[in-house]
Amino acid sequence: MPLPTPPPVGTAMLPPRTYAGKVVIVTGGGTGLGKAMAVEFARLGAGIAVASRKAEHRENGVQAVAALGARAIGVELDVRNDDAVASTFDRIEEELGPADVLINNAAGNFPSQAVKMSANAWRSVVDIVLNGTFLCSAEFARRAIARTAPGAILNIGATYSWTGGPGTAHSAAAKAGVMNLTQSLAVEWAPNGIRVNCLAPGLFPHDDLPPVLLARQNPEADCKRIPGGRVGQPHELGWAATYLCSPYAAYLTGHTMVLDGANWLRRGLAMPDFVPIDEQFP
Ligand code: NAP
């Protein structure tokens, strides 16, 4: 029997007004898991800033939030650009007010063999995932500290932070850096009332994945590969994010929570046949 399916989308997990009057920034909040998290914060009363590069993505996120009757704005941002990060936070403050929560979700998703990976591909993923997370977090904290306000930062990690993984040398190394950064920043900013946590999703398929990953989706096979017998549903990740940033987690900081149906722990004596990288990502 697989792990039970969660209650459906729309079910309240925290009290309905948990984020009333709060401002939440979600980088990459217009697609996939970022959008699913933005929607769960909005359902609990937050105003949402969807920050990413592409207008059509931002518009998707804003529409999903607005459909719940919540306030949302789309703000253009490339998280690699420190000047743009500062001016984006200015714009969010002008339109929604100062941010209470930052979700560092933006990432580059393109598997590649290490020997075929260009320097540009390596730099680009590390720049978005690790440098972008640092730049947005530091901007958030400087502002919260200046106005003596508490805050919560949630970094979106990945379980290959611990294991590494074929085809993901760039992303796994960057996510490992993000997990480590989570711990440093949690200690530095706890005296300022700012919590920093990390949420590592397992397999959470969604329709916004890039074509190369969409093509690899095979729900039946995926379910058999996961000890929990099923993939994650994006709103489950949204619930975890809203809990980790909420007052109910006020003493929780520097932690990485894994939500993956025990998938990353399954290594054991009965392993499937090894598939070389050339065959996985030709
Ligand atoms: P996704 O749909 O591809 O989302 C990535 C988002 O990042 C996009 O909205 C994109 O928006 C934004 N982005 C990319 N580069 C950016 C940049 N330079 N500046 C600002 N925004 C940028 O992927 P996803 O599956 O939802 O993944 C969300 C997070 O979960 C990622 O951190 C990913 O590593 C993690 N994760 C996902 C899974 C999964 O099963 N889906 C598993 C493990 C971890 P623009 O193109 O508009 O910039």
TrEMBL record:
Record pathway: Lipid metabolism
**What are the BP-aspect GO terms?**
fatty acid biosynthetic process
Major subcellular site: other
Q: Which GO terms describe its molecular function?
A: trans-2-enoyl-CoA reductase (NADPH) activity
Enzyme Commission number(s) of this protein: 1.3.1.38
- Keyword Lipid metabolism among UniProt keywords: yes
Question: Which compartment or compartments is the protein found in?
Answer: Peroxisome
Q: Where is the signal peptide?
A: none
Instruction: Report the catalytic activity.
Output: (2E)-octenoyl-CoA + NADPH + H(+) = octanoyl-CoA + NADP(+); (2E)-hexenoyl-CoA + NADPH + H(+) = hexanoyl-CoA + NADP(+); (2E)-decenoyl-CoA + NADPH + H(+) = decanoyl-CoA + NADP(+); (2E)-tetradecenoyl-CoA + NADPH + H(+) = tetradecanoyl-CoA + NADP(+)
Keywords on this record?
Answer: Fatty acid biosynthesis, Fatty acid metabolism, Lipid biosynthesis, Lipid metabolism, NADP, Oxidoreductase, Peroxisome, Phosphoprotein
Keyword NADP (UniProt): yes
Which leading EC class covers this enzyme? oxidoreductase
Q: What does this protein do?
A: Participates in chain elongation of fatty acids. Catalyzes the reduction of trans-2-enoyl-CoAs of varying chain lengths from 6:1 to 16:1, having maximum activity with 10:1 CoA. Has no 2,4-dienoyl-CoA reductase activity.
PANTHER family for the chain: PEROXISOMAL TRANS-2-ENOYL-COA REDUCTASE
Tell me the subunit arrangement.
Interacts with PEX5, probably required to target it into peroxisomes.
Q: What is the name listed in the Swiss-Prot or TrEMBL entry for this protein? A: Peroxisomal trans-2-enoyl-CoA reductase
Q: Which organism is it from?
A: Mycobacterium vicinigordonae
